[in-house]
Amino acid sequence: MVEKFEFNLSVAELEKRTHKDYLITKKFLKADAPEFLALAPGDKKALRHLCVAAEILEKINMQIDCKHNLAVKEFLEEEVKKGNKQAKLTKILFDAQKGCNAIDTMSNPIRLIKGVDEKLGKGVYPEDLSKEEFHTVLLRMLKEGKTDEVKEILTSRSVVVRAAEDLAGIDYIDYFNEDFNKMADELEKAASVSTNSDFNEYLLLQAKALRTADPMLDAYADKKWATLQDTPLEFTITRENYEDEMTGTIVENEELSALLKENNISPIPKDFLGGRVGIVNKKGTEALLAIKKYLPTLAENMPYADEYKQTISAEADSEQTMVDVDMVMASGDVGEYRGGITLAENLPNSDKLSLTIGGGRRNVYHRQIRFISDKKKLKERLDAILDKEQHKYYLDEADHWFTIGHENAHSLGPKEGSEKLGKYRNIIEENKADMGALAFVDLLTELGMYTPEQRLQIIVTTMADNFLKSKPTMSQAHRVRTVMQNKYFSERGGYELTKDGKIHVNIDKVVPIAKEMLAEIVRIQIDGDFNKAEKYVNDNFVWTDNMEIIAKKLQKISKTLNGRLETELADKLLAGAV
After folding, report:
1. 392 against 373, higher pLDDT
2. How many angstroms separate the CA atoms of 45 and 40, rounded?
3. Host H or E run for residue 240
4. 394: closest CA among 556, 285, 502?
5. CA 323 to chain centre
């Protein structure tokens, strides 16, 4: 029996949001893409198995995201079969944002179904669990000596359920056992036909980790994945914890925090899962690797570098691989179009076990997502918001260079203790990565990584692209930090608005200001003080008049509210059509 739901958006609103002017489309590889056709027959076969695995992972993540997602998906599919127009249009947005709830590019919440609202704990905590009850139950359990049970609740890889008056944590692998085993089957099939032995070794390690609830098995798979540099294919299970807002509330309760510390328990937010499938682009990867030799020098020049241990060593070769990937499929967390979509990722994150057993990190860049499809719109935007005399310094490729700096900066700085910053940890970390990318532009120019012209392009392009169409919500870590930066740079003369309301970047002031902000951020991470983090964010997360002037102009140029992925090759591989 299919569960019934009530639509939340009217047909008129849905027609607007799914119109091409309001719904941006990012196009992944087509079925006849040269990159796919050039693959060895075994790798083409492997690619299909990897897409099936990623599709299964999406089903799992939908349940982690919201307990009603699968039921809503089934309801929409049934209604579409009946010719229900409202269901058809709703399903376009549901598929794009991969769930019932999201935010749009104006930072407005989208609720596709009445009565299905977003929870602090998403789908990983009981739906009716309040923050207050959560804290109360944990306190009581700790006082009753149930420390092992609390550890299982507060691990990054468990679904939390009610157990009489208590709570209990069930490892993802056990909770979704059937689907994870199906995924493992597909990875093993891919490994049996793929042509690259290193890649196959990783797939088999990952398959093993999907069958048994043992964090160390994930660590071995992560460690191997982070070494992959010269493989034809890309497959990643992304595990990031930006979505869970419930666990982060623990640091707000002093008694609970103290008791957890006493019992040596670190409350790590829950992982949300994504699947990335792609074909490694050799030429793009070669360009990425140019920065690798400079990473130890950057590590040495980080603020307060002698006060912490970081992933990149100033004394040794950096344990960091990098690949540029032509995208075939992005499922689950990595493929959700919610106000925006991921350009690149630096994984594993600092809380992951693989980093404690000698593993490194790996950066993966998404080529099709970063491509600008409408150059005319770009020119309109620049004409509206950037001082005409600085147009010569704007280059869309410079945004990719900045992203490279951002992703590598995630590997710099303190790698422990950020969980103490609670709900501000991700905002602070993303801010650090941005400021790391900007703060080292002059040093990398001196070292020969960038030309003087590229230096100008990175600085102006980054500052011009840092303005938003609307004020974000506090849950949008990637956007909150841009507001903080704009306020910070404005107050210190990094940019100003001309008489006609356009951005003029004071180029030579940008890097020194970025260094100043980077030092403040790293200090907060080292100290691990929640109150300092909260004050820093609140002091800088201020939507100013200048931001509103630019936002109004951006809104006139771009009507986009939502986005989606077009994945022709993946769709045909899944259907067995290629």
Report:
1. 392
2. 9
3. strand 233-240
4. 502
5. 17
Cis ω for the linkage preceding 348 (within 30 of 0): yes
Contact 423, 537 (CB under 8 A): no
What DSSP designation does 3 have? P
- E strand map for 352-491: 361-366
Q: Which two tokens stand for residue 32?
A: 């006849």
Cβ atoms < 10 Å from Cβ of 212: 15
First to last CA, the chain: 35
What does DSSP say about strands 101-103 and 23-27: parallel, antiparallel, or unpaired?
unpaired
Helices (H), 528-544: 530-540
For the chain, percent of residues with pLDDT exceeding 90: 90
Q: What is the pLDDT of residue 423?
A: 87
Helix axis angle for 545-557 and 375-385, nearest 10°, is: 150
C-alpha–C-alpha distance, residues 537 and 483, integer Å: 10
Asked if 409 and 432 count as a contact pair (C-beta separation under 8 A), the reply is yes
**Digit-coded pLDDT (tens) for 488-509:** 999 999 999 999 999 999 999 9
DSSP-assigned beta bridge partners for residue 344:
365
Q: How far is Cα 134 from Cα 132, in angstroms, rounded to an integer?
A: 5
Helix (H, G, I), strand (E, B) or coil at 296: helix
**The two structure tokens encoding residue 33:** 């893409």
CA torsion sign for 152, 153, 157, 159 is positive
Task: Please spell the DSSP secondary structure of 437-469, one letter per residue.
Answer: HHHTHHHHHHHTSS-HHHHHHHHHHHHHHT--S
Strands (DSSP E) along 241-293, which ranges?
Answer: 272-280
Q: Residue written as tokens 């990937």?
A: 325
Q: Is the pLDDT of residue 315 over 70?
A: no
Residue owning tokens 């936002």: 551
Q: Model-level pTM greater than 0.85?
A: yes
According to DSSP, the β-strands at 562-566 and 23-27 are parallel
Q: Is the model more confident about 311 or about 307?
A: 307
| C-beta of residue 328 within 8 angstroms of C-beta of residue 47 | yes
Give Cα 282 distance to the centre of its chain: 24
Confidence of residue 317 (pLDDT cuts 50, 70, 90): low
**Nearest-5° Cα angle at 229, 227 to 232:** 125
In contact, 536 and 516? CB cutoff 8 Å: no
The two three-digit tokens of residue 458, written as one number: 């990175």
Task: State pLDDT tens for residues 49-104.
Answer: 999 999 999 999 999 999 999 999 999 999 999 999 999 999 999 999 999 999 99
